[in-house]
Design brief:
Elements lengths: L1 H12 L8 H22 L3 H20 L3 H21 L1 H10 L23 H16 L4 E5 L6 H4 L3 E6 L2 H7 L10 E5 L2 E7 L15 H12 L3 E5 L6 E5 L2 E3 L4 H25 L9
Parallel strand pairs: 1-3
Antiparallel strand pairs: 1-5, 2-4, 3-4, 5-6, 6-7
Helix pairs in contact: 3-4, 6-8, 6-10
Length: 290
């Protein structure tokens, strides 16, 4: 037994254990919080999709290093010096918005919710009813409409292209916005929670070559915003009155009022699940019955 103990002591004596002070622990916690907040911020912007693509490239480079693929490693080493500049150019809009948000008072409140009575839903049942009612009315009279419902990825850059409203949602308001020959009928309405944030917003058009040519600009815009964000977009055709929705880069046509209501309920349930998971990560879900 003494021989084993002497062997362990001789092995440990050759190791270096740095002296950890209180300031080192504080520094580690600050760095960990910065990384965590950055990941949360990235997840709520379009940079999240770009970051996933970048990570896939890194995985390929790692595989090339393991199997000694010299050609791929040479290309990666040649591009490495300019990689930081390339990333800065790609993420320039998101980096600028992130730095601007540091000066806002609600920066940290977007990560921490201290209101225990806050709703556990993205939007209320009343909002769902008003949206479905408005879409149904516009479909019957063939009024073209484009309604974007924001989810996790913020659509601030598209909200800024329109006219700010920040008003409560009602079917009468939505119908009046998209009424023919009114100042706000052209463009999209963007909804965040229970509020109409802006109207006449410009959306990116989809360049999907597989999209049927019978669909016009309104459908391409609805599909385009779903390709660059996790939003849910409702489209009412001005020619046929048919109701469609775009989500995750896919276009679903001929949706009924009950089907649309069910889709909105699914978004609402997803919001509850996401919020509960955030509470658990911050330790607020302790003692909660499963």
């Amino acid at each position: 037994m003494s021989t084993v103990w002497n062997q362990i002591r001789s092995n440990i004596s050759g190791l270096y254990f740095p002296k950890i002070q209180i300031i080192d622990i504080i520094e580690i916690l600050i760095i960990a919080l910065m990384i965590y907040f950055c990941m949360l911020w990235i997840q709520r912007t379009r940079a999240y999709s770009l970051l996933k693509g970048f990570l896939i490239v890194m995985v390929f480079i790692l595989i090339a290093a393991v199997f000694q693929m010299s050609a791929i490693l040479w290309i990666a080493s040649a591009l490495a010096p300019t990689a930081i500049t390339i990333l800065a150019v790609i993420f320039q809009p998101e980096l600028r918005k992130g730095l601007e948000s540091l000066g806002t008072r609600n920066f940290f409140s977007s990560f921490f919710s201290f209101d225990s009575n806050a709703k556990n839903e993205r939007f209320s049942e009343r909002t769902i009813t008003e949206i479905v009612r408005a879409v149904n009315e516009m479909s019957e009279v063939r009024t073209g409409a484009l309604i974007v419902i924001e989810e996790n990825i913020l659509l601030t850059e598209f909200i800024n292209t329109g006219i700010t409203l920040d008003s409560e949602i009602s079917s009468q308001l939505l119908v009046n916005i998209f009424e023919h020959n009114t100042p706000l009928h052209d463009g999209a309405v963007i909804i965040r929670g229970d509020r109409i944030k802006a109207a006449t917003c410009y959306l990116p058009l989809s360049d999907n070559a597989q999209l049927n040519k019978k669909y016009g600009t309104r459908h391409r815009a609805g599909l385009g915003i779903s390709e660059v964000s996790d939003s849910f977009t409702i489209i009412v055709s001005e020619e046929t009155g048919r109701v469609s929705y775009a989500s995750a880069g896919n276009l679903t046509t001929g949706i009924t009022a009950s089907g649309l209501r069910e889709e909105l309920h699914q978004i609402q349930k997803k919001a509850v699940k996401d919020k509960d998971e955030r509470k658990i990560r911050f330790g607020k879900g302790k003692g909660k019955k499963k």
